[in-house]
């Protein structure tokens, strides 16, 4: 396949008028292209957006971010923990990304087709997660936040707990909390849940699915200490006299005032701390590292050394804004899907380790997310009640 044939294929793909043989030839052609030829492909795609505005979504920004990510990886030194991939494999990632983007054309087409019976009807019953959480008070009693009305919920010492009209949970500390012994509360989100919390100092925390945050009802000591599991995005209120510390797994994070994300699920292979603004310090034992905005500290289970790397922070915090931004193999993607849709996942056959790159709304039903992944032609799914079977 030459460049002209590649352009013709892209246009036919957008019109849903292509053969599997040409599809395969296009993938093989793309893998052989040097990096400088990827940008012209983006320009061709932009032209198609203008030519087929109904059939193709406006994915130019996503494609550009993929290109920027690949360029950034080439500039970076070899990481300590993450393996260094060859250019051919990186281009394979780009190919997967391109196919995800072009799949948008056929997505509109398939939406117009009659609904599929049996298996597809079962998939439609699996809805995305939402604002669901349980608050555990100091005495062990619990409040299911998604089922209670807005307004005052409880009193913990001099601190009032209020469910705001925005759906946030807010802790309003009284004026006489200084010197008092605070009680501890814990916010839990289930699989398929997400919740936003405003702590007594004004710090905002957003919990992703299957996460928890344990915190005092008033910050009265020399430090503001909290404990977490799962994944939490923080916007810490600045207070130079009272550092904010997070205990997660067997490491600690210390900040004065900043925005960052911590991912520490037990079924993941590492803990990731990603800094958006400000500065944080991560520590494990005697090992202490400071992050700059745009950097991520990765700590692999069983290791004692942090891998500090520059990343696309949007990928790590997109979840809080209601989006999946994928750049991972199918196993990593399915762990995210399982937590958000509260499903189990099984694998059948020889599953590829190739990365899938894409940007998909978390408000979509799971069938739509899986359909977009299937349109790459590299992976297939079968739904059995609340179980997703992944097949090559």
Mean pLDDT over the residues:
80
What's the end-to-end separation, in Å?
Answer: 26 Å
What is the rounded Rg? 23 Å
Q: What proportion of the residues is helical, as a percent range?
A: 25-40%
Structural class: alpha+beta
* Overall body shape: globular
Number of helices: 9
Q: What is the CATH architecture assignment of the largest domain?
A: Sandwich
**Poorly predicted ranges:** 53-62, 73-123
Overall tally of domains = 3
- Per the CATH scheme, the topology name of the largest domain is Jelly Rolls
β-strand amount: 25-35%
At a glance:
With 392 residues, the chain is an alpha+beta fold. Helix content is 28%, strand content 33%.
Explain this structure.
The protein is α+β, with helices and mostly antiparallel strands and 392 residues long. It folds into three domains: 3-111; 130-315, Sandwich (Jelly Rolls), CATH 2.60.120.1440; 322-391, Phage tail protein beta-alpha-beta fold (3-Layer(bab) Sandwich), CATH 3.55.50.30. The chain is 28% helix and 33% strand. It contains nine helices and 24 strands. The strands form three sheets. It has a 19-stranded mixed beta sheet that branches. Strands 21-24-23 form a three-stranded mixed beta sheet.
Keywords:
19-stranded mixed β-sheet, globular, Jelly Rolls, single chain, 9 helices, three-stranded mixed β-sheet, 392 residues
């Amino acid at each position: 396949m030459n460049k002209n044939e590649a352009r013709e294929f892209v246009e036919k793909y957008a019109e849903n008028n292509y053969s599997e043989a040409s599809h395969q030839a296009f993938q093989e052609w793309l893998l052989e292209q040097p990096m400088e030829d990827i940008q012209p492909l983006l320009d061709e795609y932009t032209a198609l957006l203008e030519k087929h505005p109904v059939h193709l979504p406006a994915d130019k920004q996503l494609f550009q971010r993929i290109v920027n990510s690949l360029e950034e990886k080439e500039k970076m030194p070899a990481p300590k923990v993450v393996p260094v991939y060859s250019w051919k494999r990186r281009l394979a990632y780009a190919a997967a990304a391109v196919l995800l983007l072009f799949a948008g054309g056929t997505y509109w087409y398939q939406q117009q087709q009659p609904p599929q019976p049996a298996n597809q009807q079962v998939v439609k019953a699996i809805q995305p997660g939402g604002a669901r959480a349980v608050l555990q008070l100091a005495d062990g009693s619990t409040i299911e936040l998604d089922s209670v009305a807005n307004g005052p919920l409880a009193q913990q010492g001099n601190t009032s707990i209020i469910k705001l009209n925005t759906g946030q949970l807010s802790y309003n500390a009284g004026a006489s909390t200084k010197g008092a012994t605070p009680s501890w509360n814990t916010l839990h989100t289930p699989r398929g849940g997400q919740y936003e919390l405003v702590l007594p100092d004004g710090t905002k925390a957003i919990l992703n699915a299957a996460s928890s945050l344990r915190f005092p009802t008033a910050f009265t000591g020399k430090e503001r200490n909290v404990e977490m599991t799962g994944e939490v995005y923080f916007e810490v209120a600045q207070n130079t006299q009272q550092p904010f510390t997070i205990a997660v797994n067997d490491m600690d994070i210390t900040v004065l005032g900043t925005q960052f994300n911590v991912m520490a699920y037990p079924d993941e292979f590492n803990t990731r701390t990603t800094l958006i603004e400000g500065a944080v310090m991560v520590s494990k034992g005697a090992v202490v590292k400071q992050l700059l905005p745009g950097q991520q500290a990765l700590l692999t289970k069983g290791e004692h050394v942090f891998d500090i790397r520059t990343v696309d922070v949007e990928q790590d915090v997109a979840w809080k804004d209601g989006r999946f931004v994928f750049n991972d193999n199918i196993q990593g993607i399915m762990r995210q899907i399982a937590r958000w849709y509260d499903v189990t996942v099984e694998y059948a056959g020889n599953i590829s380790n190739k990365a899938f790159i894409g940007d998909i709304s978390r408000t979509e039903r799971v069938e739509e997310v899986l359909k977009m992944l299937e349109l790459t032609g590299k992976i297939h799914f079968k739904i059995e009640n609340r179980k997703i079977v992944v097949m090559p």
